[in-house]
Amino acid sequence: MSTQIPQRTVFFVSDGTGITAETLGATLLTQFVDVEFKKTTLPFINTPERARSAVDYINHLAAGGERPLVFSTTVSDEIRAILRQAKALFMDLFDTYIAPVEQELGLKSSHAQGRAHGMSDAGRYDARIAAMNYAMEHDDGQSTRDLSRADIILIAPSRCGKTPTTLYLALQHAIFATNFPLTEDDLEVMRIPKPLKGFEGKLFGLTSDPERLTEVRGERRPGSKYASLAQCGYELRQAEQLYRRQNIPFLNSAKMSIEEIAAMVIQEKGLRR
Predict the structure, then answer these.
(1) Which one of 105, 135, 153 terminates a domain?
(2) How high is the pLDDT of residue 4?
(3) Which pTM value belongs to this model?
(4) Between the CA of residue 193 and those of 3, 140, 239, what are the distances in Å?
(5) How far apart, in whole angstroms, are the C-alpha atoms of residue 95 and residue 70?
(6) What confidence tens digit (pLDDT) does each residue in 69-79 have?
(7) Which phi and psi angles does 109 have, rounded to 5°?
(8) What's the number of CA atoms in the CB half-sphere (13 Å) around residue 250?
(9) 217 with 226: CB under 8 angstroms?
(10) pLDDT in tens, 113-134
(11) Whether residues 163 and 192 fall in one domain
């Protein structure tokens, strides 16, 4: 007899992109594994008219069922007051934290919309774009130009998470990251790729579980030697031996999110976010 998993509707509401509301809300919801959450983001709710429309939409979906959860990051008191009328559990970041921070600093907040993910820090934005361009140019060993500029160089067998991790490090943290594959030739003779000689201090290795790597590779080349369990197991064993022999820090990415992998790399290599 199957047990139906309870479902709840969740809204992330913001006067900007909604990224902060999504991050906050989704992080809290990870603690409730026995509920299936149906998530909707409502960005740019920055006028009373849009707020009322959002409330109507939330109430429409709430009719006849459990009340939704609403995670909000809206700085306008007027808009928050409207949103609070929704037939939902309403939770707002600014309601919770702005008043205590104002009291501690002895200052009133600016109540400026869209500051968290806007262009308020042009230098930071430019740094992220430069890092992203660098990561894209150097992805998977495509370019060896200006490797000395790299903050971190990821190495791993194919499909262990190198590319998404370098892109995340670049876009989220403005870290100049690149990555190189460990080819079968590299693994057979237990050597790092030739272009990386002299950059050993920048290297960080990734590995995985054979079963997980087989699954991921099978999506790209089903039934191939490349995706076979034997080949995946061999490459991973060789890679881990190489990391240990060369004193290269490494981690198993099989059950880690990109965010977790990036955080571990930053911590291990002492990089500045």
Answers:
(1) 105
(2) 78
(3) 0.70
(4) 52, 11, 12
(5) 13
(6) 999 999 888 99
(7) -70, 160
(8) 26
(9) yes
(10) 555 555 456 788 889 899 999 9
(11) yes
User: Which residue carries 């272009």 as its tokens?
Assistant: 195
* Dihedral over Cα of 190, 184, 252, 265: its sign: positive
Residues 6+ apart with CB under 8 A from 205: 154, 155, 156, 239, 240, 242, 243, 248, 249, 250, 251
Structure token pair of residue 116: 């968290």
**β-sheet bridge partners, residue 156:** 181
| SS3 at position 89 | strand
Answer whether residue 2 is part of any domain. no
Average pLDDT for 138-150: 94
Phi, psi of 2 (to 5 degrees): -85, 145
Question: 206: domain range?
Answer: 122-269
Find where tokens 């960080």 sit.
Answer: 204
Task: Find out whether 35 and 67 touch, Cβ atoms under 8 Å.
Answer: no
Specify the residue for token string 């030697």.
Answer: 225
The verdict on 186 and 216 lying in the same domain is yes
Residue 94 has a pLDDT of 81
Residue with tokens 């603690």: 31
pLDDT of residue 161: 95
Percentages helix, strand, coil for the chain, rounded to the nearest 5? 50, 15, 35
